[in-house]
């Protein structure tokens, strides 16, 4: 499904009437709020001298990475640190970075680029700098499964906590092996064996007890056994026999991205396959460009980046999104085409995915897309909420069912907007205002916020919206 006539016109920056006219000449009678098919979008764009092609880029440019055994060479492991808050994830990453910095670089400044590289006796380990399972899963949700080993940090004085369990479940869901770092063993109350005992409940069983998880007792603060931990990670990696083909056009994932004042869009990518060079043409999600420079976590310019290497790419035309796939293209025009098509597709999708608003309630009902109207209600006094509930109870809800999913006294918060966005709800406020950044957030998330002074106006609006008679919101 494409976009409505109105949204299509908006996207192309043309007059909606012009689109309607051209559609009419093609024998298609459509109104502003009706949807155009992908075919129509292509036809009309073409008609208007725009080269817009709505294709699934993944299909047109699908690539099959078909590496033979001889092509595959051992590669370093990529590690993510997870664990309960305050159990020492950040401290451990700091300790690891310090330990793994080679002599000549000691005292040198490590650039924060989203990942670090540590060297143990000539072997590399790559660490993703954002600890925690939220980032890990967010990346995975976008298709970027880049972690080979999870280091689960559990404080020896605190034991297994809720986020420890979450981290275990996230790692398990991703089928990534867990190495346990029992941290804070320098503390007087530390009981590392109790941690081992507790973890057995979640299927994490030490090798020495006949299980398959490697454990290392460490102190991030006192820098105890950090070398052991790195060695253990490498042992775990050996079991996995991690390999990649370095002799191919590079591909991998964006792990961080930003707009740098002096340098323009900067994306940190993790190479998964092939070798990346300055001068390569790349597409990263909806961004593309020629690689102007490759910079490693030590701030050094590189002529090559190999599998499991994190590097900053300079030269993209826009800021990519973490989790986006990147790929080298032979032909710059293909790269540009793919990036632009993806951008258009994404915009169309966003438009389509915009959340429920009172204005399009009727359309949605007509199109059979909804039978529910979810509301988040915020008011200055409890009485207004109760009055509204009472009024809804009296309404005919045979066609549209009204659900108040959350109601409370107070201003509209960012949490309210998140809830509304996740539940496709409209926010109704009585004598309250959006607070903090909730207004901008609602605009970005396309969540409809309606503010009223009196109950009957809200009721009237909802009644009107149900039958498509709501006057435009000014
Ligand atoms: P995170 O929330 O998991 O990233 O935890 P942090 O690394 O921020 O550490 C939380 C607190 O625990 C900080 O006050 C650290 O100084 C402390 N901490 C971390 N590792 C150790 C350790 O090995 N021993 C002791 N005694 N304290 C630690």
TrEMBL record:
<comment type="function">
    <text>One of the essential components for the initiation of protein synthesis. Protects formylmethionyl-tRNA from spontaneous hydrolysis and promotes its binding to the 30S ribosomal subunits. Also involved in the hydrolysis of GTP during the formation of the 70S ribosomal complex.</text>
</comment>
<keyword id="KW-0342">GTP-binding</keyword>
<feature type="domain" description="Tr-type G">
    <location>
        <begin position="74"/>
        <end position="243"/>
    </location>
</feature>
<keyword id="KW-0648">Protein biosynthesis</keyword>
<comment type="similarity">
    <text>Belongs to the TRAFAC class translation factor GTPase superfamily. Classic translation factor GTPase family. IF-2 subfamily.</text>
</comment>
<keyword id="KW-0396">Initiation factor</keyword>
<keyword id="KW-0963">Cytoplasm</keyword>
<dbReference type="GO" id="GO:0005829">
    <property type="term" value="C:cytosol"/>
</dbReference>
<dbReference type="GO" id="GO:0005525">
    <property type="term" value="F:GTP binding"/>
</dbReference>
<feature type="binding site">
    <location>
        <begin position="183"/>
        <end position="186"/>
    </location>
    <ligand>
        <name>GTP</name>
    </ligand>
</feature>
<feature type="binding site">
    <location>
        <begin position="83"/>
        <end position="90"/>
    </location>
    <ligand>
        <name>GTP</name>
    </ligand>
</feature>
<feature type="binding site">
    <location>
        <begin position="129"/>
        <end position="133"/>
    </location>
    <ligand>
        <name>GTP</name>
    </ligand>
</feature>
<protein>
    <recommendedName>
        <fullName>Translation initiation factor IF-2</fullName>
    </recommendedName>
</protein>
<dbReference type="GO" id="GO:0003743">
    <property type="term" value="F:translation initiation factor activity"/>
</dbReference>
<feature type="region of interest" description="G-domain">
    <location>
        <begin position="77"/>
        <end position="225"/>
    </location>
</feature>
<dbReference type="GO" id="GO:0003924">
    <property type="term" value="F:GTPase activity"/>
</dbReference>
<keyword id="KW-0547">Nucleotide-binding</keyword>
């Amino acid at each position: 499904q494409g976009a409505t006539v109105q949204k299509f016109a908006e996207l192309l920056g043309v007059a909606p009437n012009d689109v309607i006219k051209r559609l009419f000449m093609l024998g298609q009678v459509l109104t502003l709020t009706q949807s155009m098919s992908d075919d129509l979008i292509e036809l009309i764009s073409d008609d208007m001298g725009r080269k817009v092609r709505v294709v699934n880029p993944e299909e047109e440019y699908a690539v099959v990475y078909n590496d033979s055994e001889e092509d595959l060479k051992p590669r370093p492991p990529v590690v993510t640190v997870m664990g309960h808050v305050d159990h020492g994830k950040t401290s451990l990453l700091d300790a690891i970075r310090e330990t793994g910095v080679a002599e000549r670089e000691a005292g040198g400044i490590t650039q924060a680029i989203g990942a670090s590289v540590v060297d143990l006796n000539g072997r590399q380990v790559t660490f993703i700098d954002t600890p925690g399972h939220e980032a890990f899963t967010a990346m995975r949700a976008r298709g970027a499964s880049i972690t080979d080993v999870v280091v689960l940090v559990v404080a020896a004085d605190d034991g297994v906590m809720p986020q420890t369990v979450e981290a275990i479940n996230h790692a398990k869901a991703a089928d990534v092996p867990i190495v346990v770092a029992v941290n804070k063993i320098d503390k007087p109350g530390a009981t590392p064996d109790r941690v081992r005992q507790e973890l057995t409940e979640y299927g994490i069983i030490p090798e020495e007890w006949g299980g398959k998880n490697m454990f290392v007792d460490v102190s991030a603060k006192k820098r105890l056994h950090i070398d052991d931990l790195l060695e253990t990670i490498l042992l775990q990696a050996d079991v996995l026999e991690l390999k990649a083909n370095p002799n191919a056009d590079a591909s991998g994932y964006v792990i961080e991205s930003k707009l740098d004042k002096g340098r323009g869009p900067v994306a940190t990518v993790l190479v998964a396959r092939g070798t990346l060079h300055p001068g390569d043409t790349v597409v990263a999600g909806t961004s593309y460009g020629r690689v102007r420079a490759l910079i490693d976590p030590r701030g050094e310019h590189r002529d090559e980046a190999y599998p499991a290497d994190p590097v900053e790419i300079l030269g993209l035309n826009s800021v990519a999104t973490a989790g986006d796939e990147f790929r080298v293209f032979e032909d710059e025009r293909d790269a540009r085409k793919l990036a632009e098509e993806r951008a258009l597709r994404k915009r169309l999708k966003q438009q389509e995915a915009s959340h429920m608003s009172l204005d399009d309630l009727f359309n949605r009902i007509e199109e059979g897309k909804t039978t529910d109207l979810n509301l988040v209600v915020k008011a200055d006094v409890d009485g207004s909420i109760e009055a509204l509930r009472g009024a809804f109870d009296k309404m005919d809800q045979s066609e549209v069912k009204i659900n108040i999913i959350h109601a409370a006294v107070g201003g509209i918060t960012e949490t309210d907007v998140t809830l509304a966005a996740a539940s496709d709800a409209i926010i109704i406020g009585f004598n309250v205002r959006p607070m903090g950044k909730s207004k901008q957030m609602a605009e970005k998330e396309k969540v409809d916020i309606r503010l009223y002074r009196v109950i009957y106006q809200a009721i009237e609006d909802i009644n009107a919206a149900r039958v498509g008679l709501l006057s435009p919101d000014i």
